[in-house]
């Protein structure tokens, strides 16, 4: 798994994950779906839509979507919350979502709020 940091003109820095297959993971749901990264190094969006329904450049832009909030990662969290709520009705969907979130460095706390995965000593050193 490789990571790539993106630097948005607003000053926000966020990380994208690329699987060993070369496909990029959705930063919202963790699906291995994209041949090109959802955002360029300068933070500009691809305007692709993930299977989870998130469109990069629309759902993360207050200028485009009335539901969007400031900050790209804040919108990922907002969207992810609805995915988590929708998956709680199916044990298998919930388990699959948890596995995908783990791939992008997220886990679900006891109250189903997604939080960053705690870094182990090896991860913190790299």
Features:
3 helices; 6 strands; 126 residues; alpha+beta; disordered C terminus; globular; two-stranded antiparallel ribbon
Largest beta sheet: strand ordering:
1-2
Rg value: 14 Å
- Count of DSSP-assigned helices: 3
State the distance separating the first and last CA atoms.
13 Å
Task: Write the element-wise H/E pattern from the N-terminal end onward.
Answer: EEEEHHEEH
Task: Tell me, briefly, the overall form.
Answer: globular
Structural domain tally = 1
Task: Write the topology of this structure.
Elements (H helix, E strand, L loop, with lengths): L1 E6 L5 E6 L5 E2 L6 E3 L37 H16 L3 H13 L2 E3 L5 E3 L4 H5 L1
Antiparallel strand pairs: 1-2, 3-4, 5-6
Task: Write up what this structure looks like.
27% of the residues lie in helices and 18% in strands. It has 126 residues and is an alpha+beta fold. The protein has one domain (2-125). The strands form three sheets. Strands 1-2 form a two-stranded antiparallel ribbon. The radius of gyration is 14 Å and the shape is globular. Mean pLDDT is 89; it is low at 120-126.
Question: Could you give a short description of this structure?
Answer:
With 126 residues, the chain is an alpha+beta fold.
């Amino acid at each position: 798994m490789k990571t790539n940091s993106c630097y948005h003109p607003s000053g926000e820095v966020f990380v994208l994950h690329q699987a060993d297959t070369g496909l990029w993971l959705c930063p919202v749901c963790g699906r291995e779906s994209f041949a090109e990264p959802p955002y360029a190094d300068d933070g500009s969006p691809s305007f692709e839509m993930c299977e989870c329904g998130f469109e990069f450049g629309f759902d993360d832009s207050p200028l485009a979507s009335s539901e969007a909030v400031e900050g790209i990662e804040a919108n990922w969290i907002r969207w992810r919350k609805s995915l988590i709520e929708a998956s709680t009705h199916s044990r298998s969907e919930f388990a699959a979502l948890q596995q995908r979130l783990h791939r992008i460095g997220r886990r679900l706390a006891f109250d189903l709020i997604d939080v960053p995965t705690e870094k182990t000593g090896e991860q913190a050193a790299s």
